[in-house]
């Protein structure tokens, strides 16, 4: 790009910056020096390829979505939390909000993630262990007791039974008197990554995609700020993929959901802002920053050029980041605070919109109050102390970071082509579905995981406390243990609620839901009625399993 075009871009950026609101905060360095809100090539200089880098707030958004960067608004501190029953988790949420958390993020226990009630035989021993147990809308009432859902953005991490859980959340909001049309939050819902990596699906892909289509349609029409999908690379990375695979598989899944929305006759400019993303921040500092920058650029370009999006919000890739759980070590676990801080810094330098920092003990158990607080404070140290919010995309223009950004983008593009070639009709969706059926994604992730593990075992890759620097004076940590009493109590309350509700109303609502499943009608209104009648998650999912069957992955060797 020649010098004149770069200068014109800088002026455009300056006009937009001047017109935007910035926080009332100190943006000088620790020594008190003024810094510019963004930096670019030296005045009067041209730079080949600068159109790929650009300015914050404009296409291709490599440098961020907003001309003000974090001067306009800092990222949301969104700590993923849930354990035991709804009452215990509600207390943790209040603690997080009081300590400066900016939004909520619900972690559900394994029975809930699999669409089963707490008293299901398959739930035995799992209730409240890896997250909170939710059986019906009444549990949602308790979960958000004293937390106005109309005012707090709430993310819920659940994909197989995402839609019934969403209905229970809506019922809880309704009972609080919130205006449902104004709710803001995120539901994970991303079923592609379940088949690819996380393995928590209920049905085969087709009925799941039908439900997701219903959800996208419903949210676009009724709850426009709500983001019904958080397309997730986190689980793909944690399963052992490389950074480029994480990026490419996740964005490919995102394109699959765009194709789903289009196939339902929805307007891409209306539904695409409801697609948000979720990435891992792993240990390779610069590679991770490059991954986030490349993600925004690829998404904006493909949404515009392939899927015809024209509105700015439809081109924006917004993402949440979680620091890498797999990078935490059980050995010398206090060192995990350092790893997490570095990973979080990469997310911030990559322009994350929302962030979860892991607690130091998460490789052993769910976090204690104290470790949860350290994790949250880690974000606050980055946000308040180190000057990283003063300048948008401070690493933009670094030869290394730009080269890495270009490389990871090129790798992702190659992978998109391979995925599309797996399908038969040139769509991303056909390629993804074929790749899932063939075990293509799983095999490639396994190869990457194997290569990394070999490198570790040969000592080529080094982890402090694990294969180098193993001596320590550290004492074992106190960890959070979930009592089996939680399960007994949850089941007692569930039995009481079942006995107290209008059984005929529950049965009628479930029948209407199944009837809707047999037509092209949107299933959400019927499912909402079932949730209002206090149908349990297990009952709703079992009714659907009866209709759609269950899905089993073929064994592969
Ligand atoms: C591993 C684990 C497991 O499986 O076990 C998991 O999955 S845990 C998975 C946990 N997942 C999550 O927690 C997902 C979290 N995701 C989200 O919260 C969302 O999808 C998100 C990534 C889009 C972030 O949403 P958010 O509300 O926190 O933040 P936003 O970026 O949307 O910002 C809020 C508002 O401020 C505006 N805003 C932000 N920055 C600026 C700026 N500089 N200038 C002007 N306006 C700005 C935004 O446009 C928006 O307004 P407006 O709305 O008007 O535009």
List low-confidence stretches. none
Overall strand count: 9
Mean pLDDT: 97
Strand fraction band?
5-15%
Structural class: alpha/beta
Instruction: Summarize the main sheet.
Output: 5 strands, parallel
Kindly provide the radius of gyration, computed on alpha-carbon positions and rounded to a whole number of angstroms: 23 Å
Number of helices, counting only DSSP H or I runs of 4 residues or more? 21
Query: What are the secondary-structure elements, in order, as H or E?
Result: HEEHEHHEHEHHEHHHEHHEHEHHHHHHHH
Approximately how much helix is present in the residues? 40-55%
| Widest sheet: strand ordering | 1-9-8-7-6
Overall geometry: globular
Present as ligands are:
methylmalonyl-coenzyme A
How far apart are the first and last residues' alpha carbons, in Å? 51 Å
InterPro entries: Cbl-dep_enz_cat (IPR016176), MeMalonylCoA_mutase_a/b_cat (IPR006099), MMCoA_mutase_a_cat (IPR006098)
Domain Methylmalonyl-CoA mutase alpha/beta chain catalytic: 29-549
GO molecular function: cobalamin binding; methylmalonyl-CoA mutase activity
Protein name: Methylmalonyl-CoA mutase
List the helices and strands and how they pair.
Layout: H1 3-19, E1 76-77, E2 80-81, H2 86-98, E3 104-107, H3 110-113, H4 137-143, E4 154-157, H5 162-176, E5 185-187, H6 192-198, H7 205-222, E6 229-232, H8 234-238, H9 243-263, H10 268-271, E7 275-281, H11 285-305, H12 312-315, E8 319-323, H13 336-349, E9 354-356, H14 369-385, H15 399-422, H16 428-438, H17 440-457, H18 485-500, H19 503-517, H20 524-532, H21 537-548
Parallel strand pairs: 1-9, 2-3, 3-4, 4-5, 6-7, 7-8, 8-9
Bound molecules: methylmalonyl-coenzyme A.
